[in-house]
Amino acid sequence: MKFTYDGYRELLELLFKNGYKAVSYEYESDDEKIVVLRHDVDRSIQDAVRLSEIEKEYGISAVYFILLSSDFYNVCTAESAKAISKICENGGTIGLHFDETKYDVNDISDMVKHIENEAAILRQITGLDIKTVSMHRPSKTTLESDIVIPGIINSYSQKYFKEYKYLSDSRMHWRENAKEVIESGKYNKMQILTHAFWYHDKDYTPNEILCSFIDRMKWNTYRNIVNNTTNPQEFITEDDVRKL
Predict the structure, then answer these.
(1) β-strand 132-135 against 93-98: which pairing, if any?
(2) pTM of the predicted protein model
(3) Measuring CA to CA, which residue among 67, 56, 66, 50 is closest to residue 22?
């Protein structure tokens, strides 16, 4: 399955063809074939918007997990606010992507407090009701702990890994053949994690995508300098940036 926008459409159509209904984490059913579509937004909210537009074409909703501690985007900027609003307009919902490595955690109760604090911050920033959390590169301990957070659904809870078939495209690699799993008819409940960062109009290699992203970040930095500096051309020009 290609990491292109058409490839993502093929994934959705394959799910529908095999009788799956896209639902939220809150949805409960033992009589239907259901799938929770999930996106961890690790590097770019703008890339996530593009996938939400495809989901709008099909009239379905997915959950977009936003990382407060991202080194690549700032949730508090006007640009990020517009992107998050667009995702919601397209039918998506927003959850918290939580990075446990930020904290010196003594026990699970400490982690729960940090998750609750970050969820409250994300609510304040976005004005949205944050009901779900996914872990960013979770440790083995976290995966095995079945962490319960009051009022917040843990997408890595045992429920969503035992009752649901889990598929992920982490590092631009499906650990299992997604097409075969979906067509097998073995699973009535599925959770599928995709990362919008890897999907584009054309089929690129991971190296090409990462190099393009680094170049994009370079130009974003230059644009921010121009927008926040008086007479920035006295110090740096577009030609200077091209040489970098």
Answers:
(1) parallel
(2) 0.94
(3) 56
